[in-house]
């Protein structure tokens, strides 16, 4: 099967074989990001590093996931990070009630791994939002409740920001 | 506003994540996916179990990031989590028949003049590796495939350097024997 060589050389051939790059499913990245977006408990924690929203528990295996979490504390409104995994997108904007559905006001920035993200301040309230991909494709957040009263017929989601005392 | 990751180092990415920028973790996952995936594949021997272990290691690392004392060495710290995860998985699947995972992409891209020999050699290597005791396989892979120093492996595994050297030596001897047996089949 293979030429007889001295024993040391055989082990070196084994090592060379094992050092070949492995092909790992790239979708693993999205699965990890989806998993870490899910809360470890069903409660909304107040710790800055751990807080995620309970509705993200509904996000099992997603091609896209949005993470809304507080960015800062103090007298200003909490800032929330929205993240979308969209490896094929050329541009993504976050649009919603909070910015008059204007795609120029919250463009999302590309990170590695097909991730798009942006951070916006949100006072307490209930907001509808969506992602505008490549300037034409509206996408709801698959991990968030769907907004049921969309008069425009486009998909959108809803996020509720609780007051600080709640 | 938002994330603008280009070629930030591990420590910078860890700092951003700790500041609340979850998206920065995607860069770390992308950075370590292939290398750690290779270790998990060789250590566990089953692709599905290996990818599950790798995913779990990344998630555990994220949730334990506050305990990463030296963000400059995030990679080594992550390795430690994966090594432990592979041990757990290895114990769970030990009773199942081990299957060596062929890296089909690598095989398809090989320039070897005889593809069948290439595939056969990969199978022989995988079967020989699977016959090693888990602690021998672990030490051999970390030393010779992942190219870590013995001191680093000792930190990861909690095993003394002299014991590790013995395990690597035994692993080499056994691999030689297994491969010679395969040659005569």
Structure description:
- The complex is a heterodimer of chains A (166) and B (185).
- Chain A has 166 residues and is an alpha+beta fold.
- Chain A has helices at residues 7-18, 27-37; strands at 79-85, 92-96, 109-110, 115-121, 125-133, 137-139, 157-161.
- Chain A has one domain: Sandwich (Immunoglobulin-like).
- Chain A has 2 helices and 7 strands.
- In chain A, the strands form 2 sheets. In chain A, strands 2, 5, 6 and 7 form a 4-stranded antiparallel β-sheet that branches. Chain A has a 3-stranded antiparallel β-sheet with strand order 1-4-3, with no helix packed on it.
- Chain B folds into 2 domains: 1-101, RNA polymerase sigma factor, region 2, helix turn helix motif (Rna Polymerase Sigma Factor, Chain: A, Orthogonal Bundle), CATH 1.10.1740.10; 114-185, Arc Repressor Mutant, subunit A (Orthogonal Bundle).
- Chain B contains 9 helices and no strands.
- Chain B has helices at 10-18, 24-44, 47-63, 74-93, 104-108, 115-131, 134-145, 150-157, 161-184.
- Classes of the chains: A alpha+beta (166), B mainly alpha (185).
- Chains A and B meet through helix 1, helix 2, strand 1 and strand 4 of A and helix 2, helix 3, helix 5, helix 6 and helix 7 of B.
